[in-house]
Design a protein that fits this description.
single chain; alpha+beta; 3-stranded antiparallel β-sheet; 7 strands; 23% helix; 7% strand
Length: 428
């Protein structure tokens, strides 16, 4: 319970006198459980105070000194704490929903299990703070310093643009749809973290631990992954480009589909540097999709034609994948500065032209083949007739597409049902 005397003094004195009184008598303030909603304590000294379960909703706490204070379970929803000193403060289980902590100092603060949804922590100092189990959905961490923080928390949709998360512990943290654009995550522990649809563009993830991380549909354009660990990560449909740096990446294996499907390599581990070689090379690609199989003669013709016409494009077939229902995808790597749209259009146009031309030639060859076969059948039948006239034996007449093999038989003993065709008997 709050010390009533402290409450009375707080409301009788102005902030300047309050601070002098607290300092002169080295008072350990106890306002636990007090109702201080909408109060104005701007610039007040509440260091080491007991504010457990205190109601400070919508209070003006700008530039307040709360260093080492116990704010566990306190209600700070909508409070203005911009510029406040909360270094070493205990905010475990506190309600910070929508609070403004712009440029606040939270170094080594404990925000374990706090409700910090929508909180503004832009430019705040959260170095070495403990945020385990806290909820920061749609919070603003722009340019905040979270170096070395313990961040096993939920950050769905949080804004970390340009934030300093160097060496932060984000193991198993939920960063789904978070904005980490240009953030510094060097040496951060992101093992098992959920980065589904997160914006990592131009972030620094050098030497970061991304083992078992979920990077499905993440934006990784221009990210520095130098020396990062990817073993066991899922990179399904992630977006990278030629400026994404995978140099010296450490990776034994990865997954191309969620739920640990489509392991690469299928068995064993990547050789050192193999992950970088395979995935850095295929960063600039175009997909050629075929829904009714591939005419490889037409493919070879069109590919060579486009290659000759675009000599600087560095075309190279990377993979051929079956996607089900007869769909095949041929992935081709191209130079970073190549006009992929033009190359794709030229290739498909050349392919369709070659496919139609070759199909016409094929049909013509089929028609020529049928004519030749019919002439052969006619010749054989004439020979059969001549043979029957001279030897008294007949043969089954050869017919195109006949289901019988043909052969010479004795007309006096043959069973017509056995051969399933017509016979001629030259005996009168």
């Amino acid at each position: 319970m709050a010390n009533v005397g402290h409450q009375v003094i707080l409301f009788l004195l102005n902030i300047k006198l309050w601070n002098l009184w607290k300092k002169s008598f080295n008072v350990k303030v106890n306002l636990s459980g007090a109702d201080l909603r909408e109060a104005n304590f701007r610039g007040a000294n509440f260091s080491d105070a007991n504010l457990k379960n205190t109601d400070l909703r919508d209070a003006n706490l700008r530039d307040i000194d709360l260093a080492g204070a116990n704010l566990s379970g306190a209600n700070l929803a909508g409070a203005n704490l911009s510029g406040a000193n909360l270094a070493g403060a205990n905010l475990a289980g506190a309600n910070l929903f929508g609070a403004n902590l712009f440029a606040a100092s939270l170094s080594k603060a404990d925000l374990t299990n706090s409700d910090s949804r929508g909180v503004n922590l832009s430019e705040a100092d959260l170095s070495e703070a403990s945020l385990r189990g806290a909820t920061f959905a749609k919070a603003n961490f722009r340019e905040a310093n979270l170096k070395g923080s313990d961040l096993v928390a939920s950050f769905f949709g949080a804004d970390f643009q340009q934030a300093n998360l160097s060496e932060a512990n984000l193991s198993r943290a939920n960063l789904s749809s978070a904005n980490l654009n240009k953030a510094n995550l060097s040496q951060a522990d992101l093992s098992g973290a959920n980065l589904n649809k997160a914006n990592l563009s131009q972030a620094n993830l050098s030497d970061a631990n991304l083992s078992r991380a979920n990077l499905i549909e993440s934006e990784a354009l221009g990210v520095n992954f130098t020396g990062a660990t990817f073993t066991g990560a899922c990179i399904e449909d992630w977006h990278t480009n030629s400026t994404t740096n995978l140099t010296y990446v450490i990776c034994d294996y990865i997954y191309l589909r969620q739920d640990q499907q489509e392991r690469r390599p299928i068995s064993g581990n990547f050789a050192p540097g193999e992950f970088t070689k395979l995935f850095q090379k295929s960063l600039e690609t175009l997909d050629l999709i075929f829904r009714n199989g591939i005419d490889w003669d037409a493919f070879a013709y069109s590919f060579k034609k486009v290659e000759v016409e675009n000599q600087g494009a560095q075309l190279d077939v990377q993979s051929i994948e079956k996607k089900g229902e007869g769909i095949l995808v041929v992935r081709v790597s191209v130079a970073p500065d190549a006009d992929k749209a033009k190359i794709h259009g030229d290739f498909m146009q050349g392919y369709e032209f070659a496919h139609k031309a070759l199909e016409a030639q094929y049909q013509a060859r089929l028609e020529d083949k049928d004519k030749v076969i019919n002439r052969l059948f006619s010749s054989i039948n004439r020979l059969n007739k001549k043979l029957a006239q001279t030897s008294g034996k007949v043969s089954i007449y050869y017919q195109p597409n006949s289901q019988i093999a043909g052969g010479i038989v004795d007309a006096n003993t043959v069973n017509a049902e056995q051969i399933g065709g017509n016979i001629q008997n030259t005996d009168n």
